[in-house]
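We emphasize that the prediction below concerns an isolated chain of 254 residues; any contacts that depend on oligomerization or on bound cofactors are therefore not represented. The input was used exactly as deposited, without trimming of termini.
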Amino acid sequence: MLAVRNLAVRFGGVTALEGVSFDVRPGSITSVIGPNGAGKTTAFNAITGYLRPTGGRVTYDGVTLTGLRPSAIAQRGIVRTFQRTSVFPAVSVSDNVLTGLHLRGTAGFLDVLTGRRRLVAEERALAADAAAILDFVGLGHRRQAIASALPYGEQRLVELAVALAARPRVLLLDEPGAGMTGAEKTVVSGLIRKVREGGMTVLLVEHDMQMVMGISDTVIALTGGRVIAEGPPAAIQAHPDVIRAYLGASGGPA
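Result of the prediction step, given as a token string:
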């Protein structure tokens, strides 16, 4: 289980997070919601090592992650995406996914220099894995396309494929539906469900309430750097503090 306990982040005199605590249950889809400035991405950055918290700690299966570098956290199976696309624009879609497979490579420097059979076999296996991941996200027909030539929605799918290539145990998605059309969000929602059905745990930040309420097991609402509500989607939709702070005084999301 991914556990966040009393997480605090301060920038000078500004408090971004204060005493944030929550659990992400194994095999669940957990969403973090809140208005702009609520601390959602700050929490993601602190969990994944891109930001050192002022206080509190993050653990996964009882092992402390706080203070580790992002690469060390990724090696422990905690992998994230970002709000903006982070694909390598000048190379092919397939090569993008191969970069995400680097943690699974075992060939050493001498293998590269001498072109040993183990290196050749490993490269073939990784290429097959990349192809299977691209088929999974619906981009099998785009393998050889240059990433920058893809429409925005497909570039976000490439980013998801790169994250999946690392075989995460917990996948953190920072606004996976941002900038997408309604049809593209439907595709992404279906992929997130399929990822969870495969045994992976998903933690996401998302502004689209229809998407959040449709796929989440648990929703955590933040405002002002604090957790104001946590529970199943129906309970969050009806929670008076959430309605006032995020959804608007007139009621919940459509």
